[in-house]
Fold:
Amino acid sequence: MIGIFDSGIGGLTVVSAIMDTLPGYDITYFGDTARTPYGTKSFETVINYALENTEFLLSKGADIIVMACNTASSVATEHLSKKYAVPIFEVITPAVELAVKTSKKKRIGIIGTRATINSGVYEKKIKAMSPDSSVYSNPCPLIVPLVEEGWLKNRETAMIVKKYIYPLKLKQIDTLILGCTHYPVIRNVISRKIGKRVNIIDSSVAVAERIKNFFENQPNMNLGKNGIAHFFVSDITEQFKKTAKVILKRDIDLKHVKI
Ligand code: DGL
Structure:
């Protein structure tokens, strides 16, 4: 089974991409809704949460772990990879590889939570793969709550996105990485504001492709393919259910679990 965790509900964008790319694979999702958001927390706290979330998914029988959360991926990847024998996937490297491969002008922008941007991980990875690339980033802390409120088409959302995106537009980037679980939900708004010619890299799609390639190269890994999906959350409210429906475009059964 594919175990996926996120700081909350936003990681369902990754679930959606994995379901599209790897149809039928059994999935267990854990959204840490009781402790969300991670993007404003210290690295140490996020690492501890990531370890606990992984333990939970392993206790449910996960064969691989996918960190859907960009913030957790930014700060906890090494800790998880050192501690656990199962394959650990994070959302940053696949997005960076795709960005480097497709950017013609080598001018790449990144948007994410404050913790993700402050970690500098995207920048470091891009520079390591493509030293002559110019990298520009901007934290966009208001986008997560706007998406969680379902403000997808509101004028205010478009205005806030414009304000965040403007400094990157000035840098004439040709590629923009959506470095946060929630941003694919308003991909159209972001694309309109940065300009249609800018190539948008969605880290949820990039990680799903990475996992698919991994399975193709590991024919001995026989994961369950019964189309079973379980969704666990550490806190449950009507709003979380609504956000889940906004992202997955269908009702899902969220199960409350204490970890
Ligand atoms: N899941 C987080 C991320 O992708 C966004 C929400 C949060 O701050 O916890 O960075």
The two ends are 19 Å apart (CA to CA). The CA atoms of residues 152 and 186 lie 6 Å apart. The domain at 2-90+205-256 is CATH 3.40.50.1860 (Rossmann fold). The pocket of D-glutamic acid is lined by residues 6-8, 10, 36-39, 69-71, 112-113, 116, 144, 180-182 (CB under 6 Å).
